[in-house]
Amino acid sequence: QITLKESGPTVVKPTQTLTLTCTFSGFSLSTADVAVAWIRQPPGKALEWLALIYWDNDKRYSPSLRSRLSLTKDTSRSQVVLTMTDMDPVDTATYYCVLRGSEDGPFDSWGQGALVIVSS
Amino acid sequence: DIVMTQSPDSLAVSLGERATINCKSSRSLSHTSNKKGYLSWYQQKPGQPPKLLISWASTREYGVPDRFSGSGSGTDFTLTINSLQAEDVAVYYCQQSLIYWTFGQGTRVEMK
């Protein structure tokens, strides 16, 4: 059974750096073609892809947010960490950790999401 | 960026009737080498994460009822829900994966 769980602060202040951890089970991020993505959703709004890390440590970032994002993985601990700098109230959203289980495939499995509120 | 535009933004359908959601991309989502359509559909119910319904434009995921079907190619795609059930009330998103990943704005399906 595949599970993904996001963890991190619920509230961050403007200009601070957000660090979110995705802890997963049921698959390995060392398996060829597997990738883990971060996708966010502001309250009442649409989904927005942020970043994705491949099994071979290759990474992709949203062009509009690239300068603020960083991804790392710890395969032995089954974790992926997203860092987002210079947080702003418009970054208030639910942040999802998502598995892409096959080459060029869809987003197969989603975590429950972590709500992050940016407020002073 | 590839922009995904869904229509309508919302629709109300009677129990047992058909719901049709359209998704248009700003460029063709058909891969030049394998001709696959890099388009997926997701269902999101209130308070839940999205759930994958259809990948590669028309491939239904395991366990998804067969009243859900996807069609289309190039820049125009459709999600059809035949015989709408109460549990189908949700927001539906299309998503392209040809170049990076982008979602449509969502279509809210309600019961009439």
Describe this structure in words.
- The complex is a heterodimer of chains A (120) and B (112).
- Chain A has no helices and 11 strands.
- By secondary structure, chain A is mainly β.
- Chain A has strands at residues 3-7, 11-12, 18-25, 35-41, 48-54, 59-61, 69-74, 79-84, 93-100, 109-110, 114-118.
- In chain A, strands 2, 4, 5, 6, 9, 10 and 11 form a 7-stranded mixed β-sheet that branches.
- The model of chain A has no long low-confidence stretch (mean pLDDT 97).
- Chain B is built from no helices and 11 strands.
- Chain B has strands at residues 4-7, 10-13, 19-25, 39-44, 51-55, 59-60, 68-73, 76-81, 90-96, 102-103, 107-111.
- Chain B has 112 residues and is mainly beta.
- Chain B is globular.
- The termini of chain B are far apart.
- The model of chain B has no long low-confidence stretch (mean pLDDT 96).
- The relative contact order of chain B is 0.34.
- Classes of the chains: A mainly beta (120), B mainly beta (112).
- Chain A binds chain B through residues 37, 46-49, 52, 60, 62-63, 96, 104-108, 110-113, and chain B through 1, 36, 38, 40, 42, 49-52, 55-56, 93, 95, 97, 100-106.
Helix count of chain A equals 0
**H and E string of chain A:** EEEEEEEEEEE
- Percent strand of chain B equals over 45%
The percent range for helix content of chain A is under 10%
Structural class of chain B: mainly beta
Tally of DSSP β-strands of chain B:
11
Helix content of chain B: under 10%
Q: How many H/I helices of chain B?
A: 0
- Major sheet of chain B: 7 strands, mixed
The biggest beta sheet of chain A is recorded as: 7 strands, mixed
Low-confidence stretches of chain B: none
Quaternary state of this entry equals heterodimer
Radius of gyration of CA atoms of chain A, rounded to a whole number:
14 Å
N-C termini distance of chain A: 39 Å
Instruction: Tell me the Rg of chain B in angstroms.
Output: 13 Å
